[in-house]
Structures are given as C-alpha cells and as structure tokens.
Amino acid sequence: RLPEITTELEKMNENQGKVDLELEEVKKFVKKIEKQKKVVDKKIENLDSELTTVLDHQSEVSAKKNEIDIKIQNLKNKLHDARVSKSEAESQQKIIQNKINDNITKNKISVEELLSLEQLSHKLATISSTRQSTSSEIKSKISNFSSQKTKIANDIAELELILQKSSIAANRYNEKIKLVKSVMHEDYTISQLKDDSKKLGIEGFVYEILSWDKQHERAALAVGSDWVKAVVVPDFETLVSLAQVARDKKLPKLKIIPLNTIPEFHMKMPKTSGLLGILSDYVQCDRKYIPIAKFLFGNVILTKTRYDAHELSKVGYNAVSINGEFFESKSSAVVVDINSKITKLTKIISQSSSVDGLFKTINLLSNHIQKKKSNLRKIDQIHHDSLERLQLAETEFGNASYSNSNLKSQINSARKLGNKFSQRILELKKQKENFSPKIIHFSSTVESLEQRIKLVDQNYSNNEQNSIANQLKLLNDKKSLLNSVHSKIMKELSEEQAKISVVEDRKRLRKNELLSEKSSISKEKIELESTIITFQADMGVSEQVLVKLRGKEQELISTSDTSVSQLSAYDEKLDKRKRKERDITNELNRLVRESDGHDRDLNEIKSKESSLKKILDLFGFDESIETFSVEPFVEVLEKEFNALTPSLNAIAPQKYLDISTGYRTMSNRKNDLEGERNSIWAFIESVEKEKKQTFLDAFDTIDKEIRKIFTKMNGGNAWLELENEDDIFNSGISYLIQFPNKPKRESTSISGGEKTLAAVVFVLGLQKLKPSPFYLFDEIDAHLDAPNAESLSKIVEERSHGSQFIMVSLKDSVVEKAKLIYGVYPKNGVSNIVIYKDKRMPSMTS
Fold first, then answer.
1. Which residue of 107, 178, 288, 359 could cross-link 421, Cys pair, CB 3.0 to 4.6 Å?
2. What angle do CA 744, 790, 775 make, to 5 degrees?
3. Is the domain covering 772-846 a CATH 3.30.420.40 domain?
4. Which residues form a coiled coil (predicted)?
C-alpha cells in the first residue's frame, strides 16, 4: 500500500502544474469577469452621471447656452486625450502579446527538450533494469553451475570408487570361475545342462530328488557318492538324446538314469541281529522317484556297527554301517565316508555369465565416467564465460546508472527553466489583462464623449427638448441593458468562485488523506521492523539455548533409557508453547492491523468533517443562519456535478476494497509461510535427531563388539570414544587400546604388532554391524606372538560361520584351523602347489 500511496502522491505532484494552470485559468476568468463587472459598474455610473447631466442640462438649458461652446470644446479635448490614451494602451498591449508569444514558443521548445530527456532517461532506466536483471540471472546460473560442478565431481569420485571395487570383485570371481572350468568336473556338465533342463527332458538330479536325515547322511553318501550327481530322465529315448547333446558339447562326464527302465527289486532281509533295515527306506523322495531310491539304495542293508556290516558282506549282502563304512558283497574292500559333502561348483560356474555382464557394465561405467568428466570440463568453460558476461553486464549497468543520473540533473534544469517561462508568461498575461480594462474604459469614454458632443450639437437645434427626451430614453435603455449584464456577470462570478473552492478543497482533502495513510503505514512499518529485530535477537538467544538443551538431551539419551520419554514430553510441551506463541503473535498482528484500519477511518472522517466545515464557512454558513431557498444553489451544484461526472473514478471504492482484501490475504499468506517455515525447521530437527541416533546406535554396536573381541583375544581392553560429543559429525573418533599390565593408549601410538591386532579387532567389530561375504587377510599374524595368534585363529574360526575368510599365514596355530589349505613350495625353480582339505569338507575333485 505504501508504494501505491507514494506513486499517487507523485502523480498528484506531477499533475499539480496542470491543476494549478486550470485553476489559474479559472481565476483569470474570474478576474476578467470582475473587471467586466467594474467596467459595467463604471458604465452605469457614467450613465447615471450623464442622466444627471442631461436632466440638469434640460433644466438649465436656457441659462447655460453660452457655456455650451466651451463645454463642447472641453469635450473635444477630452475626446482627443482619450483617443491618444487608447492608442497608447493598445500599442502597449500588442507589445506584451508579442512577448507572450515569444515566451510560449520558447516554453514549447523547452517542454519538447524535457520530453526527449525524459524519454531518454526512461530508456536508460530500462537498460539499467535489464542489465541488473541480466546480472542476477547470470549470478543464479553461476550458482547453478557451481552446484552442478560439485555434484558431478562427487558423482565421478563415487563412480570411480564403484568402478575400482567392481573391477577387483569381477577379476576375483573370474579367476575362480576359470579355475573351476579348467577342472572340467561333472559339475561343469551339470551347469551346462541345467539351464536347458526342460528342453532336454531332464527330470532333475539325484541330489535334488533324494534327501535323507542328518544321521543317515554318512551311510547314504558312502553308498551313492558316485550317483548323487547323475541326471534323471523319464525314458531311454531321452537318455540317448541327452547323451548325444553331451557329446556335441564335449562335456567331460555324465551319468544318466532313465526312470522307465529301472527294474522292480525287492530284497529279503536276513534274520540277523544289529540290522536297521534297507537303506532305501531311510531315503525321502516323491512317490514318482521311489524306483531311483530302490535302484541306488534298495540292495544295501543299514547296520548299527561296522562289524555287523562286514559280517553281512561275507554272506553276499551289500551292507553299510550308520557311521558310513560301506562293504560290498563278498569284497575285502571298504568305502569309508567321514565328512564328505555334495559340492556346489555348479553355482560358481553359472556365475560366469553374470561376471561377463559385470565386465560389460564396468566398461559402460568407465565410458560414463569419461562423459561425466567431459561434461565437467564443459561446465567449467561455461562457468568461466558466465563470469566474463557478469563482469560485462555489471560494467554496462554502472555506465547506464551514471548516464541516468546525469540525465536526471538535466531534466531538473529543464523543468526549472520551463517553470520560469510559465511564470513569465503568467506575469505578461496579467499585464495584458491590466491593459484590457483601461482600453475598455478609454473606448467607453470616447464613445461617451462622442455621444455627449453629438448631444450638445443637437441641443443647438430647435428640437432641443425632444433630443433631450430621446437622449434620456437612450440612456435609460443602456442602463437597463447594463443592469442585466451586471446581474449575469455576478452569477457567473459566484459559479466560478464556487468551482475554485470545491476543487481546491477536494485536492487538499485527498492529499491529506494520502499523507495520513502514508504516515500510519510508515509507523506500522517501523513497528514491524523493530518487532522483527526483537524476534531475531530472541531467535539467536533461543538457538543458543536450544544448542545447550540438545547437548543435555544427548547426555540424557546416553545415560538413561527413561530420558527418551521425558524428552518427548518436553518436546510436546515445547511444541504447544511454540504454537501458542504463534497464535498470540498472529492475534497481535491482527489487532494491530485492525487498530491501524480504525485510525485511518477516524482520520478520514475527521478530514472530511474539517473540509465540509471549510466549504460551509466559504459559503458563509454558520449555526445561526436563517432558512432560505436553495434552488439557485441546487442548480449551480447540479451543473457542477454534471461537469465533474465524466472525470470521476467510479470504481475507486471497489479498488480500495480489492486493495484492502489483498492486504489481508497477503497477511494471511505471510502467517501461513511462517507456519510452513516452522514445520520445515521441525522436520530438519527430526532428521538431524534421527541421523544422530542412527550414528550413535551404530557406534554403540561397534564399541561393544570391539570390547568383547579384544577382551577375548588377550584379556585387555579396547573401546571407542567420541572426540566431541556435542558435535559428533564434525569431530573424529578415538580408538583407545589397553593391553594387560599396560596403560591405555591411542591406536596411533602403539607398536606394529599391537596395531595389527587392533586393526583386526576393529574389522571384526565392523563385521557385526554390516557383515561381508568374504574377508581377505594377508599375513595379519606376522607380528603376533603365539598366544595372540592362537586367539586370532579362534576368533576367525568362530566368525567363519557367517562369512568366508581367506588368509595368507605361516603360523601353525592359524593354518590348523583352516578347512582348506593351499601350500606353495619351489621345486627346480618352479612354484608348485599342494592342497590339503579337511576330511569333513566335500570333495572338490572327481
């Protein structure tokens, strides 16, 4: 509203000259009418004097006959003097008119120059605004480019890290797959056929179809270890086609069992003690695949002991003990299964396509990184060009502003010159108007003298009395005409004076209204600014108090579980008080706005009352005035109303209502934005709180695991500490170690072997938080003594149930815990490899 009032006042000031000119013209017209009135009054007086003279002359015509000649001569002299004075006044008036025309011409030239300067100033202001907006746009682009540059740089760093890790993983899996494929085990055959099992008619594999309990596993694997990876097909034709496919693909080894060719077999149990039954009865499968179970295990008797199985083999039965000792019929050999497993090399071989796809993805990722780097270089170049454009735009903006200030000074000078010309023209017009009544007076005097001379001449005739009567009639007619003209002039004069007073009072009233509204809005602006400053200061103090309260809150969280509920209760109370504070602030703002509106309404009413009193005083109204007919004034006011109606702004009340509604709407919008800002701050605080809590939970988990593992390894203590608990994200973490009978020290100030042990403990502590499928350690026990190496091997063995550990070691205590060992030794200058596997591990070679 304040800019609109300022703009309206400026427009009023700009239009002041026009209004003043119009008022001056009206006033000039009034003065002209007054002068005409004076002339008419003077004419009436002259007529009255002439009438008196004629009447005196008529009464004294006979007595003054001798004086007529002298009087005629005097009149002729006066006529001559009057004509001379009239000619001088007319010539002086022409000179003044020429000066007025010259000044008007000069004023027009000055006005044209002023208009051209104002147009040029407007163009410069437009250019200056354009340059300023261009600078702002370029600055925003520079900011966007900077953020894009930072984001792309971060993306490149992350992508390069991903590329590095994925390359390492792909190479590791690729080597493993190459090793398995080079063995050409029957698992390779399974992996090649498994993808097309439905097309080839494969029902499944024996180890997938059959299953058994844990207690019978040793016996089942001892008997059927050669057949567990055989392929099961429905008929012999499928067997032949599958064998042809295996030959075409040059697969290393393949066993096939057709279901429809398995003969029915029923074995009679010998009547001997120590028997558990036929082994096929302890194998589970679908009813469809029972012949396979009988084919593989139906001719084998399950016994309790090795002795019972051996005795049965002597009498012609195939027998196996529950511990996995298999004795064939009448054979002196035995097959013992201690801890064999069904190998899962098929899964590793099937991963080869995924690894190939991973290599392709790595190449695409590398190309994407190169494109990102190219985009980063382009953004750098655009950023540099934008900086140059910004410097050029700011330079042009400065030049335009300087030129605009110079033009404004020239415009002010031109306006002053135009005002001087206007004042000079007004003065000359006043001088010209002063000569007009003189000329009229001289003209009337000449006319009067001529008539008097004519009358005096007529008095010499015999019809002197008739001429005197005619002259009296003529003078009376002139007097009546002048009286009518005088009444008309008086009426016009009163109308023009009323117009002037109404226009001036209306202009003054509107200006006072705008100034009062401007002052009230300015006061409201100052009060709001002071309130904002006070709230900002209170906000700084509140933020400091909030930081302290957050520190206390963290202490309460770390020391007591019950403080969480108390903290939530305090948060709820704080939210309620904040909402209450916002409601009170909104209500206070609403009351202040209502008070300002009432003050403005009161000022408007008072100003209207004073203006109406002035108008009444101007027309001579007071409290003791008597009643009279107002019809003449009503006619004058109706004429004035009809004249002013086209220039009135009929939609001004609606505009005022729209502006008031807009002001209230913007106030409500401001309150809504403040509420949204508070909700955003609350959301940010909740995110920060959740982030901090997540970090502290992870920190506590790793800290507990490190304490547990380190104490278990050597009986010492190890723990983590935050360097600054009040600012955990901008500070570091200290890793403190205390070996038995030694003081506590940081991890950076301990020996090499101690650092190795501390690092291994830290890695194992991280495993608790986020386990990895594989861990690769390269001689981590090289600097450890025997007890620590033994403790390390136990910890690694415990953790190997959830992850796979691959270690390079020379310590016996570590090697003896391994399930699979690769030994490297030189022979004739060539490295050779020896493999040792735990008997409980499944076979990896055929």
1. 107
2. 85
3. no
4. 30-92
